[in-house]
Amino acid sequence: MTEILHARDLHKSYKMGKSRLEVLKGLELCVNAGEFVAITGASGSGKSTLLHILGGLDTPDAGYVEFDGRRIDKFGAGQLNRFRNKMVGFVFQFYHLLDELNVLDNVVLPTMASVGSLGWPARRKKARKRAVELLEQFGLGERIKHKPYQLSGGERQRAAIARSLMNEPRLLFADEPTGNLDSETGNGILEILGSLNHSGQSIVMVTHDERMAERAGRVICLADGRIVG
């Protein structure tokens, strides 16, 4: 299998008063294209910190992350923005949808951001068509004009997944995507992620629920700042 991401000797700590809390201690991780990897561990084990570093949302104190063989810590500001906008997608526990926009406009935001205000008029029709197709794929075709606060939790998460896929990312990061949902609704979200992976989408998911993690193709566990399983 082709390696898409490799984290090498990651270290991360945070200052806590007069002391420092070591969160990651020389962590190594590789992800192959087409994999569905679940990262588990106790609260505070560094799962979300790791995911944010892998996705370029945070930086390690030492070590580095390679994506397609390129070190993302060597990216300039513009390259890093393009990486986060086009090469990877993000799904979070709390959706992060904008209540002032309807569902369709929320979903097209990544494409709008990638082309800017000058390029948007030429891309608008194609982008909105893709957004509608994604929303229909996730059962939200009748909700495109609704505001996020008019949706259920499961519907909001499905809209967030659609948004994360707008620019066809190589790798999807999901941070506790079922953590704010009941078990039945959460299972529905995992069915969607599993279907995406079956279609070839690479996914790295953080979850505290080992039963949810078992739906992934590979499960690793963090403890004491390192991978233990």
The number of helices is: 6
Write the CATH architecture name.
3-Layer(aba) Sandwich
Report the C-alpha radius of gyration, rounded: 18 Å
Domain module tally: 1
H/E element order: EEEHEEHEHHEHEHEE
Strand order of the largest sheet: 6-7-8-3-9-10
List segments where confidence is low: pLDDT < 50 over at least 5 consecutive residues. Answer: none
CATH topology-level name: Rossmann fold
The major β-sheet equals:
6 strands, mixed
Helix content: 25-40%
How many beta-strand elements? Answer: 10
Structural class: alpha/beta
CATH superfamily descriptor: P-loop containing nucleotide triphosphate hydrolases
Word description of this protein:
The protein has 6 helices and 10 strands; from the N terminus they run E-E-E-H-E-E-H-E-H-H-E-H-E-H-E-E. By secondary structure, the protein is α/β, with parallel strands linked by helices. The chain has one domain (35-58, 84-227): Rossmann fold (3-Layer(aba) Sandwich). Helix 3 (103-137) packs across helix 4 (153-164).
